[in-house]
Amino acid sequence: MPAAALPPTRSTGHPSALALHQYQLSLMPADEAERVGQHLATCEPCRADLANLASDQRRFEREVFPQTRAAVMQRRTPWRRWWPAFPALGIAAAAAAAWLVILTPQPVPEILTKGDTTLAIFVARDKNVLSVSDGKTRLRPGDRIRFVLQPAGQRYGVIASLDGAGRSTVYHPFGGHDSAELGAGPRVEIPGSIVLDASPGPERVFAVLAPHPFSTAQVVEALQKLAGKGAAALRETTSLPLSVKSATQQSILFEKSP
Fold first, then answer.
1. I need a labelling partner for 95 at 20 to 30 A (CA). Which of 13, 67, 115, 253 fits?
2. What span, in angstroms and rounded, lies between the C-alpha atoms of 251 and 226?
């Protein structure tokens, strides 16, 4: 499915999170940038959102990028641009994050599967954007993945993954000890994208959503326990044993091919 141009605004009339990211990094076409700029001139909440993005970018450059830069350069990645405002790379995983690179996001389709879906993963490959189907999609080195949530009324969430080598990573929230507050509306796009390395095997991404804040440490602990059971258990386990009241979960498994 060809990648469509990113709509500059949500149905509410305010710029989406991705539109603000594009505006901040001057990646938006001139006419759309002009429209967003005019909106920002009269909208204090959106100006505050833009200021928060700039703060996240400075924090990433100060705390995370120095830890990962050397490892990334050793791999001589062909990607030329980092996505410094990405708020989804856990601090605990950053020191060992040579297997991923943060990139300028690609647009994702506007429609999620109807029903109880809480998590969708989209992969950008060449000039196409494809949906990742649970247990049916085989990804390649260099594929860029992005996450989209359908909260269904839940207000807080954590996105984390475990791969076949037993490595767990918290993607969202960035550097947070507690779950991330989700934006209003039926669709929440997690900014930024991740490029997969060449290590083969399964990886399962878990989305845990709840009506109240909860600790990311609970999710990490459950992932570490699952890691000790091996790749077969990872392929079969669709939810984590968590004591988060009224939480909902969904996970998506994909295989990475060399």
1. 253
2. 14
Residue 173 falls inside a structural domain: yes
- ω into residue 173 within 30 of 0, thus cis? yes
Question: What single letter denotes the amino acid at residue 90?
Answer: G
Q: Determine, yes or no, domain membership for 140.
A: yes
Split at pLDDT 50, 70, 90, the class of 56 is low
If one counts every other C-beta atom within 10 angstroms of the C-beta of residue 189, the result is 20
Residue 193 clears pLDDT 70, i.e. is over it:
yes
Cβ atoms within 10 A of the Cβ of 65, count?
Answer: 17
* Distance between CA atoms of residues 189 and 122, nearest Å: 11
Range of the domain at 130: 79-256
Number of helical H runs and strand E runs in the chain: 7, 12
Is the pLDDT at 7 greater than 60? The verdict is no
What is the predicted pLDDT for the residue at 141?
85
Segment 16-41 shows an average pLDDT of: 78
Enumerate long-range contacts of 81-84, CB under 8 Å, 24 or more apart.
83/21, 83/191, 83/192, 83/193, 84/57, 84/60
Joined tokens for residue 39: 């909106």
Tell whether 158 is covered by a domain: yes
Q: What is the pLDDT of residue 236?
A: 96
